[in-house]
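Thiamine phosphate synthase (Geodermatophilus sabuli), 190 aa
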Amino acid sequence: MSLPGLLVLTDRSQCDRPLADVVAVAVDAGARAVVLREKDLPDGERDALAGELRAVLAPVGGQLVCAGPRGDDAVHLAARDPFPAPRPRLVGRSCHSAGELAAARAEGCDYVLLSPVFPTRSKPGYGPALGVEGFARLLPGAPPAYALGGVLPDVVPALLAAGAAGIAVMGPVMRDPSIVAAYLTALAAA
């Protein structure tokens, strides 16, 4: 299975309205893949939210990926999460170093999120920021890598030229989901 060039990551704490409404606006603007984070929610609430987001994505053939190793056919793992058994249909992992990228490749991850590319308000304290050159240096031998962390539409062409499989965005989309159109325009132009 292949993912589109833009992955939207959720963080309801950055939204000014219900998360499902923010995702609906992002989907209306063209988003087709969403990673549901919200790991602090109790399982029942998170499952209900996943159902809402699947309903938003279904009419456009979109993909919901759930963060954590539990249950779904498409999962996104933190750097230290155990690899799930049985293997889901789609497995991604967050990576921050060459060692984590090598481990993700060895375990057969379908994609990785490599971060932080730039300083980010969403996850302060991670770093140092890689920059475009640092991101590119880590890619050889890695699974398809999405650039995450402080990525704005104007740097998308440089990241794609550096070898990114796509980009992953959380904060800017959670705060203004209509910005998805600008990211998609940048992806299409590159």
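The chain has one domain: 6-189. The first helix runs from residue 19 to 28. ok done for today
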